[in-house]
Amino acid sequence: MAEQITLTLPDALAKRARDVAASTQRDLEEVLLEWIDRTSLQMPPSNTVPPTEAQLLQRVNIGFSADWWSRYQALIAERQAESISEHHLSELIEMSEALEIANVERVQALSELAQVRGCSIEAVMDALGIRPNPETDG
């Protein structure tokens, strides 16, 4: 069961949410729910236990759809060919910002997971088979 709540967001936050929704081809509500969910995982109330490994792994594995990646790569190709329009450049910037935010959140989750396991981030990345991919770093 779900409860409907009406929120009034500051203009800047509402625009950011709409931009992320558009660049990731998702509904605004889905983006906002994801942000709320991520925030609740990152900042537990002081009377709760820290996130479990499963919750941290879930945050590490959050990603974009294959269609999103195809569009992102197409826009990068346009930029590299120096044939990108202003509209497409704006779209690429929005997508790059969404990717950057997701990567920061992944690194935060990796850091927390490393703390839980008592090892380095590099050790956690090795254990999970995570390697940097220069092709997706824009």
Keywords summarizing the entry:
138 residues; mainly alpha; 6 helices; 0% strand
Mind describing the biggest β-sheet?
Answer: none
Catalogue the unreliable spans. none
User: Structural class per helix/strand content?
Assistant: mainly alpha
Count of discrete alpha- or pi-helical segments spanning 4 or more residues: 6
State the distance separating the first and last CA atoms: 40 Å
As for the number of domains, it is 1
Share in β-strands: under 5%
User: Would you list the SSEs in sequence order as H and E?
Assistant: HHHHHH
- CA radius of gyration is 17 Å
Form type: flat
Question: What's the pLDDT, averaged over the residues?
Answer: 83
- Total DSSP E strands: 0
Helix percent reads: 55-70%
